[in-house]
């Protein structure tokens, strides 16, 4: 059985509530197929948060991001389709494209330059952990325009770029 709800309150009390929920033990009946006998053990209630998040990255890296999260396209699981559609419409997103294959990003080192000089880059890694599911909701494009930045020494620099 899955109870889905929304929790609200001060952070400390919410953390205590989650710990209390995880500490509960319930009788769990199962039939031993070898002996044919019904047995009862205890299992813990599992608090599994569902979290809406936004991950921000440069648009040309879309395939790296989707590959790193092992996402091949729009959500296909029934429990994610309806809420995905609703959230996509409410947040004015467009659907994640269907990919023919997942890009293997393990160990990929992107190239970068500033003022014509190479800059060090770290390897891109898979971004998925066992036991975590990421259901794609949608994408939103950044506004690309001229931006003015003030540097630490007070000087200004202007760039035409995505507004990450």
| Number of helices, where a helix is a run of at least 4 consecutive DSSP H or I residues | 3
Largest sheet: 2 strands, antiparallel
- Termini separation: 41 Å
Global outline = elongated
Q: What are the low-pLDDT stretches, counting only 5+ consecutive residues below 50?
A: none
Radius of gyration using CA atoms only: 23 Å
Beta-strand content bin = 15-25%
Mean pLDDT rating: 82
Strand arrangement within the widest β-sheet reads 1-2
Work out the number of β strands.
6
Query: What is the H-and-E element order?
Result: HEEHHEEEE
SS-derived structural category: alpha+beta
Helix content: 10-25%
How many individual domains? 2
Descriptive notes:
This protein has 164 residues and is of the alpha+beta class. It folds into 2 domains: 1-49, no CATH class; 55-162, no CATH class. The chain has helices spanning 11-23, 62-68, 78-90, and strands at residues 25-31, 38-44, 113-114, 117-118, 144-150, 156-162. The strands form 3 sheets. The protein has a two-stranded antiparallel sheet. A two-stranded antiparallel sheet has the order 3-4. Strands 5-6 form a two-stranded antiparallel sheet. The longest helix has 13 residues, at 11-23. The model has no long low-confidence stretch (mean pLDDT 82).
């Amino acid at each position: 059985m899955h109870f889905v709800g929304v929790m609200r309150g001060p952070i400390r009390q919410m953390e205590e509530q989650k710990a209390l929920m995880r500490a509960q033990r319930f009788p769990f009946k199962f039939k031993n197929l070898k002996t044919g006998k019904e047995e009862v053990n205890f299992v813990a209630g599992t608090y599994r948060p569902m979290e809406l998040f936004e991950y921000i990255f440069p648009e040309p890296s879309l395939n790296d991001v989707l590959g790193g999260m092992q996402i091949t396209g729009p959500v296909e699981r029934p429990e994610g389709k309806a809420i995905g559609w609703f959230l996509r419409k409410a947040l004015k997103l467009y659907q994640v494209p269907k990919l023919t294959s997942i890009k293997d990003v393990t160990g990929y080192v992107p190239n970068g330059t500033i003022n014509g000089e190479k800059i060090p880059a770290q390897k891109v890694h898979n971004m998925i952990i066992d036991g975590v599911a990421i259901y794609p909701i949608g994408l939103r494009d950044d506004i690309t325009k001229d931006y003015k930045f003030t540097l630490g020494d007070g000087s200004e620099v202007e760039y035409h770029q995505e507004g990450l």
